[in-house]
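Journal club side-thread
Mid-discussion, someone asked how the predicted structure for our own chain would compare to the paper's figures. Pasting it here so we can look after the session.
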Amino acid sequence: MSFAENLRQIREEKNISQEKLAELLDVSRQAVSKWEQGIGYPEVEKLLLLSKELDISLDSLMETEIANGENPETGNVTGSIVIESPNENIVMTCCKVMSSPQFKGGKKSPKYALIGMQSNGGSSFCGENTTFLGWYASQESIANEIRSIYEAIAKGIPAYSLKYSVKVEKHLFSVKIK
């Protein structure tokens, strides 16, 4: 599902009106409506607040697949790889990676987030657990990262360290690129 579909479904499951959600986030009801229609996306700060107010992880809220085991440059790729995210101090085994939709925000805000889907132990099927892996300044940088990860899987490389993610400073409800 897309960000818009996830947001609408989660908001409705929690019995929160667009008006109430807009009030909680200090935005207009029209802004929430646009997000749910896929016309726009919230700024990074609002996205973090949205995650908190809806009591849902950013991973679940932003789940939009860029690659589902298939990459145009590497063909159909299956397998898993250990990914290290040095900027976030995360190491996990992934069978798939995904990108968030583009975030709005200031010039110093990251524009995308990379999400890894964890494999089920020794199983060949992907699990349902997702983990945030890193922030990205541009669509080009996250696309390069995803392509590099799938190329490493195709070559049988057992581990990969993120190369294109950016370091950020985190505040209560904001994220800025260092």
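Post-session note: DSSP finds six helices and nine strands in the chain.
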